[in-house]
Design brief:
The protein is α/β, with parallel strands linked by helices. Helix content is 43%, strand content 23%. The protein has a 6-stranded antiparallel beta sheet, with helices on both faces. It has a 5-stranded parallel beta sheet with strand order 2-1-3-6-7, sandwiched between helices. A 5-stranded mixed beta sheet has the order 15-17-18-20-19.
Length: 649
């Protein structure tokens, strides 16, 4: 015989919410349903009068009724039909009032979409609970076998407060046989729970003559399992109205509570991820224009510097301007890398030199109450690292140390060569035995308990107050170190501060010589034809002027503001090199290059952009005769070298 469908009345006037609930219930194979729908209270009351229903899903705000009055009207018409209140408002006070007025459960509609099974669980729970209440009211006329079949915790108390009933579900939940509970005061039953809270609920029930609830009551079973209960205490009376004690019934809601906590955790994680993704999108959107501004600042600072070499004070000021512009450019690169809009570009660097160069910025970051000390290996230590990623590691660790020392202290950065043996490597995920550069960052803060230290690299885990941290800083550090084939160890204890030891695979010094800029290549002259011709295309007038001034002494330069103007010239006049920005309105640099080589097949190409992403690099692979892509901001020397190389190719 096929299972009888559960007859459910949905009272909802919003079409979108109705569609959502229908869809959720349709995809529940273990709960066959017959769903009726009413958009108004009056229609719902008519259906309750003529239909035999198992459950009501009720929105409190309807065209002809609003609030708890809606629930009261439904309960008066069908007092034995369980009601699950659906609402758009996550209001604890309203939820409590709804439950006090007879609702079996209270669900926020937004949660149903995130956790679809929550609705059907609540429906089952509501129907089972209503069934239990009905059976309890008639308990004096039912056999003990029928009472034992109720799928809820069921505990009976006599007028004297002694336990009179302890059903099989209670035995299974608490791991306590009925024989060890019957005849004892509830406070003396060997269950680890808040007996005082249950007694308080019983007192409220006695005073009001109505049921009282405990929504969340922690407990521990005899076998050590911990969980959460949802209990209701109801008064029991004889046919003449005399008090007969109390009935405590409910369920183990541990799984449901865990599901709610997991949902909350995932929602918070999603919020944090979206926030970081927004930062990445924002950085990607402004990178090109922002780097154009920095290009102009650096370029014209170079010209001023070249004209005033005999003014040390001015030169110092210009160096500060250049340093600030370069730092701003690196900040954009960090945001792009964090938002995964720019891949890491490792190169061999001297770790000691890089830490030394960043010391001033790190001291500014941690502030005056904290003194920064460097204890660097006397000899150069080389490692293949992405400079942006390495700088981000130092910034994050320094920021973390600053927060660990609100009253000030010392921050020590050490470097050393280290050899990791097979035994130590086996204790570290993904580590290999070999030679490493060890970078240690140690603070004099309060330190951490072992259980906290074990979780600090988890994404979104933070010990800081809400709004004081995202829990991503150390996760980023861990991820970047892992990307470089390294690993991290921690030395910390309460009262001893914290030291992070970062291990990066060491490069042999013989292969790690620092890069030196090659001298600017002298542009070859065109035999008997004077200077070589360069056409510069950029929609930014300042960039056009800057590039022209850098190149005009060695080349015959013409500048245009758009791809259309450039193509018109290239169809009439031969050029040796096209220097074009890749991001321009109407026709971008890629389209310009494609048309330009059709007009002049021997034309050399040099591109420039304020945002080099993996997508840009991939597209450039298909561009014919492109010598390189210059990343703004670039120096005058870098432009001269790139143009000289391009026209000579």
């Amino acid at each position: 015989m096929s299972e009888q469908p559960v007859r459910v009345l949905l009272v909802e006037d919003t079409a979108e919410d109705t569609r959502l609930i229908r869809e959720v219930l349709t995809h529940e194979p273990h709960l066959p349903l017959r769903l009726l729908h009413a958009e108004r209270l009056s229609t719902a009351l008519e259906l309750l009068a003529k239909e035999s229903l198992d459950l009501v899903l009720l929105d409190l705000r309807l065209p002809d009724s609003e609030g708890l009055a809606t629930l009261t009207a439904i309960r008066q018409r069908a007092p034995r039909v369980p009601v699950v209140v659906l609402t758009a408002s996550d209001d604890d006070a309203l939820a409590t009032q709804a439950l006090q007025h007879g609702a079996q459960d209270y669900l926020v509609k937004g949660y149903i979409q995130v956790y679809p099974t929550l609705l059907t669980r609540s429906m089952r729970y509501a129907m089972e609970r209503q069934r239990g209440e009905d059976e309890v009211r008639a308990a004096h006329g039912l056999t003990a076998q029928l009472v034992a079949a109720i799928p809820s915790i069921l505990i009976g108390l006599g007028p004297d407060g002694l336990v009179t009933h302890w059903n099989a579900v209670a035995q299974d939940t608490f791991g306590l046989p009925a024989a060890q509970a019957l005849g004892r005061p509830l406070a003396e039953v060997s269950v680890r729970w808040e007996a005082a809270e249950i007694q308080g609920c019983i007192s409220r029930c006695r005073a009001s003559g109505r049921s009282a609830r405990i929504d969340e009551l922690p407990f521990a079973s005899a076998n050590g399992r911990t969980g959460m209960l949802g209990l209701t205490v109801s008064p029991m009376r004889s046919e003449t109205g005399e008090p007969m004690g109390f009935l405590i019934f409910g369920a183990d809601i541990t799984e449901r509570k865990h599901s709610e906590l997991e949902r909350q955790r995932l929602q918070e994680q999603l919020r944090q991820t979206q926030q970081m993704e927004t930062i990445g999108r924002f950085a990607g959107g402004i990178a090109h224009d922002f780097n154009n501004f920095l290009q102009v600042i650096l370029g014209f600072a170079f010209f001023i510097r070249s004209r005033h070499r005999d003014d040390p004070a001015l030169i110092n000021d210009l160096d500060e301007i250049a340093h600030a512009a370069e730092s701003a450019s690196r900040m954009v690169q960090q945001l792009l890398a964090f938002g995964r809009r720019q891949r890491l570009q490792p190169k061999v660097i001297d770790v000691n030199q890089t830490v030394q160069q960043m010391s001033r910025l790190l001291q500014q970051l941690v502030g005056e109450p904290i003194s920064l000390r460097l204890e660097l290996e006397p000899h150069a230590l080389y490692a293949s690292l992405d400079l942006t990623g390495f700088e981000q590691i130092l910034m994050n660790l320094a920021s973390n140390a600053r927060d660990a020392m609100p009253a000030g202290g010392s921050l020590t950065i050490r470097t050393a060569a280290a050899r990791v043996g097979p035994d130590e490597a086996a204790r570290q995920p993904s580590a290999k035995a070999g030679e490493y550069v060890r970078l240690s960052v140690q603070d004099a803060g309060l330190g951490m308990e072992a259980q906290v230290a074990a979780r600090i690299f988890e994404p979104f885990f933070t010990t800081k107050k809400p709004g004081k941290g995202t829990g991503l800083g150390l996760a980023v550090v861990y991820g970047v170190v892992q990307q470089h084939g390294g690993f991290i160890t921690i030395d910390t204890a309460p009262g001893r501060g914290t030291a992070f030891h970062l291990f990066f695979p060491r490069q042999l010094e013989a292969t790690a010589a620092p890069e030196r800029p090659a001298p600017a290549a002298a542009p070859p002259a065109r035999d008997g034809q004077g200077k070589r011709r360069v056409l510069i295309v950029d929609d930014d007038a300042s960039i056009r002027l800057l590039c022209a001034r850098i190149l005009q002494e060695a080349y015959e330069v013409q500048v245009v503001p758009s791809a259309d103007r450039a193509l018109d010239i290239l169809k009439r006049v031969p050029y040796d090199l096209l220097l074009t920005d890749l991001r321009m309105p109407e026709m971008d640099g890629f389209a310009l290059i494609e048309e330009a080589v059709k007009a002049q097949p021997a034309l050399n190409i040099l591109a420039m952009t304020g945002s080099i992403t993996p997508d840009v690099e991939q597209r450039m692979l298909a561009v014919p005769r492109c010598a390189a892509v210059l990343h703004k901001p670039f120096s005058a020397q870098a432009l001269q070298q790139a143009v000289g190389k391009a026209v000579s190719s």
